[in-house]
């Protein structure tokens, strides 16, 4: 049997519960890479995703271009988001199964066309 992992970056948003429900209907458990600022803005939506069995990973706090930051700034970005993710899982009463992380990338608009 073949398998794949579905990852989605830059969550949560107001659309997160609908996305999570749709994927659950299809039997898909995604890994959602969360931006800390979005967690703060859409906390209930992020909590819903965790409660529904999604894995939330770290996509930095403010989604900066890491190549423009020094090591201390990069570390602070990751740490701040980790604290928010820990808080979400604690509030949901769910042990974090893993701590995936994806660094933000700078992609020009022309490169994102399919």
Structural account:
- With 114 residues, the chain is of the alpha/beta class.
- The chain is built from four helices and three strands; from the N terminus they run βαβααβα.
- Helix 1 (16-25) links the parallel strand 1 and strand 2.
- Helix 3 crosses helix 4.
- The chain is globular.
- Residues 108-114 have low confidence and may be disordered.
Radius of gyration: 14 Å
Indicate the structural class.
alpha/beta
Q: What can be said about the biggest beta sheet?
A: 3 strands, parallel
Order of helices and strands: EHEHHEH
Task: Give a quick precis of the structure.
The chain is an alpha/beta fold. 41% of the residues lie in helices and 11% in strands. The two termini are 28 Å apart.
Notable traits:
114 residues, alpha/beta, 3-stranded parallel beta sheet, 3 strands, disordered C terminus
Give the helix/strand layout.
Elements: E1 7-11, H1 16-25, E2 31-34, H2 36-41, H3 43-51, E3 55-58, H4 71-92
Parallel strand pairs: 1-2, 2-3
Helix pairs in contact: 3-4
């Amino acid at each position: 049997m073949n398998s794949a992992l579905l990852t989605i970056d830059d969550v949560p948003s107001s659309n997160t519960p609908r996305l999570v429900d749709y994927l659950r209907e299809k039997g898909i458990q995604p890994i959602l890479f969360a931006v800390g600022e979005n967690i703060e803005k859409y906390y209930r939506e992020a909590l819903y995703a965790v409660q529904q069995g999604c894995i939330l990973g770290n996509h930095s706090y403010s989604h900066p271009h890491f190549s423009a930051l020094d090591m201390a700034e990069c570390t602070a970005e990751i740490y701040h988001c980790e604290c928010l993710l820990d808080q979400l899982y604690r509030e949901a009463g769910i042990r974090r199964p893993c701590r995936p992380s994806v660094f933000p990338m700078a992609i020009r608009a022309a490169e994102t066309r399919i």
